[in-house]
Write a structure and sequence with these properties.
This protein has twelve helices and twelve strands. With 344 residues, the chain is an alpha/beta fold. The protein starts with 10 loop residues before the first helix and ends in a 5-residue tail after the last helix. It binds adenosine-5'-triphosphate and magnesium ion. The site of magnesium ion has 5 residues, from helix 5.
């Protein structure tokens, strides 16, 4: 076996070049792959910080090389338990609030399925009879209205606010789409205007009484997520990622932002986890799951792992996401609902 990984290599370089080594670091009790330390610290340095004996370090390096070469390691493969994690602190629930809970759906990474997961989570709550709204916080690339097939111009509500659109299933939706003449019209706005649009979507829209307002966000950690974290009475954040190592690393920036701003991560969703053939053969198209790492870094439960499902894409494109059912989705929905402690 070629000794490709040595103790003086930087941890992040190791996991970037050999993603399979993440589980070895974790299996040996080294969480440095996900924290800032790993960006500059060597394997030996990380081991020193965690008081490894020379023998333990030697075994770690041996296992890292084994994992990099696709060989078995001394670390048992661990699967993130779906629906289990560190217990949550209870979300705030002021009975007088018109909108009882505001939950943002975030990811540092683009295209991992934030909007789709937002839609699915909203549908799962609605199916429980909850009053649900979705604030499409992706001002320049809105996609929620399309997914729910909601079209129309904004109108004034009886109380003088903006009336949100309603999906077929009764979910209230507010999206920048409503203000555009054509769906393909670009919104060429700078950060402050985006922030102010999000604040207005929250305060000037006549949401009425809602049990949940879900906020779909664009990727990254810039204006829109910052505004939502700082200007909205946010109760929790759901993090969405895909199994790709790169996605996990970029998502980590978002996790760090939420933690720095003292937000509460209520759960993690891994999307596009696998593809299943009609004969039930599974293919991990984007690679093995990184959910264990996300769970350990966030301290929040894994709500579910969604497969790549062409039926789901078609329903979204047709504006009929509310008609979607699948086993994986049922599991995600059940975990999300029980995480939010809804009395059925
Ligand atoms: N599990 C899935 N199965 C099939 N298609 C999916 C799945 N998840 C997402 N998609 C499709 O992939 C595309 C990207 O998803 P989505 O728009 O939800 O990602 P996003 O993270 O919100 O992207 P952005 O960063 O641009 O906001 C969409 O066309 C969506 O329908
Ligand atoms: Mg999106």
């Amino acid at each position: 076996m070629a000794e490709t990984i040595t103790a003086d290599m930087v941890i992040h370089d190791v996991v970037t070049r050999y993603p399979a080594t993440v589980k070895v670091f974790h299996g040996h009790g080294l969480p440095c792959t996900a924290c800032a330390v790993g960006a500059r610290e060597s394997v030996a340095g990380g081991a020193r910080t965690h008081r490894f004996s020379p023998e333990k370090l030697e075994l770690l390096v041996k296992d890292l090389n084994a994992a990099a070469n696709g060989e078995p390691t001394s670390v048992a493969p661990k699967k993130a338990p779906v629906g289990k994690g560190i217990p949550l602190n209870m979300l705030s629930s002021d009975p007088d609030r018109k909108i009882k809970q505001v939950i943002a759906i975030m990811s540092g990474k683009g295209g991992v399925g934030k909007s789709l997961v937002t839609g699915l989570l909203a549908v799962s709550l609605r199916r429980q009879g909850q009053r649900v709204g979705i604030l499409d916080g992706d001002i320049t690339g809105p996609s929620i209205a399309r997914m729910f097939g909601t079209r129309g111009q904004p109108t004034k509500s009886a109380s003088g606010g903006i009336e949100p659109l309603r999906s077929k299933g009764g979910i209230k939706v507010m999206s920048m789409n409503m203000f555009l003449e054509k769906e393909s019209d670009p919104v060429v706005w700078r950060g402050p205007m985006i922030s102010s649009a999000i604040k207005q979507f929250y305060s000037d829209v006549d949401w009425g009484q809602l049990d949940y307002l879900l906020v779909d966000l664009p990727p990254g950690t810039s204006d829109a997520p910052m505004t939502v974290m700082q200007a909205l009475p946010l109760d929790g954040v759901v993090i969405v990622s895909s199994p790709q190592m790169l996605a996990t690393m970029v998502v980590m920036k978002c996790v760090n932002m939420v933690q720095q701003l003292k937000g509460l991560i209520v759960g993690v969703v891994e999307n596009m986890s696998y593809f299943e053939t009609p004969n039930h053969e599974r293919y991990e198209i984007f690679g093995p799951s990184n959910a264990t790492e996300l769970v350990s870094v966030t301290g929040a439960p894994l709500l579910g792992q969604m497969p790549i499902d062409s039926a789901l894409t078609s329903l979204c494109d047709a504006g009929r996401v509310e008609e979607y059912y699948s086993d994986a989705y049922e599991a995600l929905a059940a975990n999300f609902v029980s995480t939010l402690k809804i009395k059925r």
